[in-house]
Description:
It is a single chain. This protein is mainly alpha-helical. The protein folds into two domains: 3-80, Winged helix-like DNA-binding domain superfamily/Winged helix DNA-binding domain (Arc Repressor Mutant, subunit A), CATH 1.10.10; 90-170. The chain contains eight helices and three strands; from the N terminus they run H-E-H-H-E-E-H-H-H-H-H. Strands 1-3-2 form a three-stranded antiparallel β-sheet.
Amino acid sequence: xxxxxxxxxxxxxxxxxxxxxxxxxxxxxxxxxxxxxxxxxxxxxxxxxxxxxxxxxxxxxxxxxxxxxxxxxxxxxxxxxxxxxxxxxxxxxxxxxxxxxxxxxxxxxxxxxxxxxxxxxxxxxxxxxxxxxxxxxxxxxxxxxxxxxxxxxxxxxxxxxxxxxxxxxxxx
Length: 172
């Protein structure tokens, strides 16, 4: 399934919504980078419905409200439980993290796996920049790799800070 499909499942899990209400969430929040286009959202909703992951209920003339099915909830929970991997787009990983609001232990596990992946990328980027191929790159390419290194370092720092904050919040 696509990140848009999982984002839709997460929003519908939080509360049943119409297609229009879902579009509004995408238009008015940072989730807009997953698409607020009717040409994306309505086909994605149709696919989720065809797969049996959501069901629609009539809410008046020409209006349906979508609710998550047990199968949809199972697929969503399975997606949330995945550890972060080095190949995963960090933005998709953070989408999962945003939907983990009800599970503190899983949130802490997520942050640990996110930090491990970030640290692995940091080591690889530093190694590359220090290697012969890294030193022989054009300056713009070196600067682009340095940007990747700095953003990954910032992501690792964020994960450590977020972990501490969640850990503190869970103390009795």
